[in-house]
Request: fold
Amino acid sequence: MADHSHKLAAEAEKLRDQLNRANYRYYILDDPEISDAEYDKLLRRLEALEREHPELATSDSPTQRVGAAPSEKFGVVVHRRPMMSLGNAMDAEEMREFDKRVKRLLKSDAEIEYVAEVKLDGLGIELVYDDGRLTVGSTRGDGINGEDVTQNIRTIKSVPLRLQHPERGKIPRLLEVRGEVIIPRSGFVKMNQEREEAGEPMFANPRNAAAGALRQLDPKITASRPLDAFLYAPGVIEGVNFKSQWDFLQGIKALGLRVNPLSRVCNGIDAVLEYWNEITEKRHALDYEADGVVAKVNSYALQEQLGEVSRSPRWAIAYKFKAQQAETVVEKIDVQVGRIGSLTPVGKLRPVQLAGVTISNTSLHNLDEIRRKDIRERDTVLIERAGDVIPYVIRVTKEGHPRAKPFEMPDKCPVCHAAIVHEEGEVGYFCVNANCPARMRESIRHFASKGCLDIEGLGDKLVGQLVEQGLVKELDDLFHLTKQQLAGLDRMADKSAQNVLDAIQKARKTQLDRFINGLGIRHVGEHTARQLALKFKTMDALADASEDDLLGVRDIGNEVAHSIREYFDEPRNLKAVKRLIKILEVEAPAEVEGRGALRDKTFVLTGTLESMTREEAERKIMAAGGRVTSSVSRKTDFVVAGAEPGSKLKKAQDLGVRVLDEKGLVQVLAGTN
Ligand code: IVH
Reply:
């Protein structure tokens, strides 16, 4: 007996350790090591242990509070009303039990009216509006104390700094609203691409990226990240009386706050379960990550009657989606060399099916990440595919046998064998050999890619061969290829050789921003390339620009300016660019100043256009001085709806934003010439 209770005490202690560590990883490092489902499992086990053996409970047990203390980087905001967390249901059965409990507590047999909402997988925040003005924005923190991230939250475009007057009703004296900050998937993918190109460590998932962005000390960095927010819960409110959750959601929407359009009133728990099924199916089509559905008793009077236990309301519950995880073996850890020479470790996986796709590779991001998770060759790992985003390794579930040695970054480039450069204290490892074939291959691939010269038929395999055979050593070598050279390559018939040559010739005619983007200058992506093209008009002028000149360009800071200068100061780069200038027929960007009829007009595109690609449309709008953004808000001037438009169209209609069809867009553009 004594032995048994000893064992239980040891188990409880171990669970507490695991949970504390998980909390720390989640809240302080923004880098969770275990999945939410696993966390819940551990927490439930500990709760059960402490319930059955109250002598095992300690006052500092993770069951006694939610989350962890805020970091010291920011000031503290005390939430006037604690920000609660939600109990979880693991399956439909548990949802029904929840519903029964609600009815029992309310001593009622009648169907309960719920509001079903999407459970967003982002970062909990609270906004405070005093007399309609945003005064404080904070993170959830541990629910009692959050971090003061007002300056960062103010950079989120969908968070109004002032509430708008509702058509009916008034602006409340005080409005505290809670919600979730997220990074849309599209923005996340783009952001990671840019980070990879810049040799910066990538984020494992949008949640981490959002957390990182929100907790930046420099709001300028936050502003450059594609953050978005949805609001869904009340804090303290004075001066307006909401009677139900639905009433509240409609009310804050009328005040100009962003609410999730998928929320729905459900009569009875079956309707909630149906909602869960629906959302489960369409979760991948959403442009943000969701991890489940939340059901809330609609009536605030009933909510009050139900009350709460240990900081979870008895009137709400979360029903998470089934996790998309799988186990597989890391057969090998390879190192890939990027365009600017950064090394990225990549796990070659035993192919495994996950959420309908075969996964055989996963980026392991960087050495620190591998060390932390202690991932080694032959280990079995748990991988998760969060939405459409590239899968990542959560943890090792079974060590390989015999266990491989810990992974080390190579000290020589795996491709050209040049020495690898690594700055002490930095995350990155670089091959600095500008002649490295791996780097050349990536550079050419980039140069030929869609957003750059868009050379059709110049695929990865072909580029690889061209570099391996020494046929292309510099970007401009592409334009001197002969049919004979091409036809000598693997699987290259005369006809296809000619097609490639034609495509290369066709690509000679290009635009300045594509050309700039194509050079692959560190920190210069599509957007920056456009700004540079508009400002400098010719490649020669850009190559001559001083850092000060460059700093005068919209959205360009020190780091970017420095990187551009560094690029052109390298004689080899400059020579290649000069040769390219002679070969290419570069179209200067359309003049904007003075007659940019669309100056400062904001456009959002949705659906498929017929007469032009989305890219061309963006280009034309920008050439006329307009801006293209990804989400619709009151500040959007036009939404262009092509075939099969998405939810953006509905949003535009809801907000009264002007909608153009394709013809309308063409007309608006024509008017700018
Ligand atoms: S309501 C009274 N609604 O889930 C409960 N939470 O474990 C307050 N979350 O920290 C939360 N989507 O960050 C609520 N539609 C939604 C949500 C949601 C995501 C998060 C929130 C909270 C956690 C609760």
